[in-house]
Amino acid sequence: MRAADSDNTIFDSFLSHIHLYTIHSRKTMDQTEAISKTKEFYEANKIDAERIIFQKIPERLVHLYELLNKPEFCIPINYKECKFDVTTITKLENNVKNYAEGETPHNIVPGQMIIPSNKNSTELFKIIKSNISQLIEDNSILRLWITLLIPKIEDGNNFGVSIQNTVLKLIRNIDSASKTYLDKWSRYCAYRGKLISKVVKYPFIEDYRVAIEEFDEKQHLDVSLILREIYFFNTVLYDVIIKNIEKIKNPRTSNIDCLY
């Protein structure tokens, strides 16, 4: 019996070692797979960043330059006013009241009750919005790429690291300004809607209609200026990165170079 118990103990110990080895092997495999996927992500980010620097930004600069030379984006601006017909607005106001009271006029299509937005500014901002969104997306890739290239903290020989941090700060500033430009459009639409509601409510006050026309003209000017800012952001970002590409990739070397 004692021999049998001894054999069982040895067998249980063997199974325990096999179980621990299996768990350790699985952990090792999981860690190896995680490291492999991390390297793949790092390489993919590096390829995307270099494609943005050497291909996408130059192509975007050419595209933006062509847009800047179009008549609708030139300053002084070829602005088309979006005037309001007082008779139409009064008619729309009456229709809204009738629908609210449950009456349905037979000679009016419900779609005609909608007062349209300023289509000129809307079309121009769609162009601006796509360029801003692309800039923000590319900046997120570039920011991650540069951040991963920052070496561990050490004493001395940190000039290259300071260049990396300078470029990262530039990217953050561009992102912040670009997001502010996106918010401008929603504020414009909200304020313009309030002015139009005043025109509908007080169609006999001409100042409200003049205010809308002036506000539309100012927004048209803002859209043109925003496009120039986006062109400026891409130009500066490309210029700084290209001039310091070696220091960004290899921040610590024996030679100390200047920023530009």
TrEMBL record:
Belongs to the PA28 family. This is Proteasome activator PA28 C-terminal domain-containing protein. GO terms for molecular function: endopeptidase activator activity. Pfam families: PA28_C (PF02252). Residues 115-255 form the Proteasome activator PA28 C-terminal domain. Keywords: Proteasome. The keyword Plastid does not apply. PANTHER family: LD45860P (PTHR10660:SF2), PROTEASOME REGULATOR PA28 (PTHR10660). One of its GO terms (cellular component) is cytoplasm. GO terms for biological process: regulation of G1/S transition of mitotic cell cycle; regulation of proteasomal protein catabolic process. It comes from Aphis gossypii. Implicated in immunoproteasome assembly and required for efficient antigen processing. The PA28 activator complex enhances the generation of class I binding peptides by altering the cleavage pattern of the proteasome. The keyword Kinase does not apply.
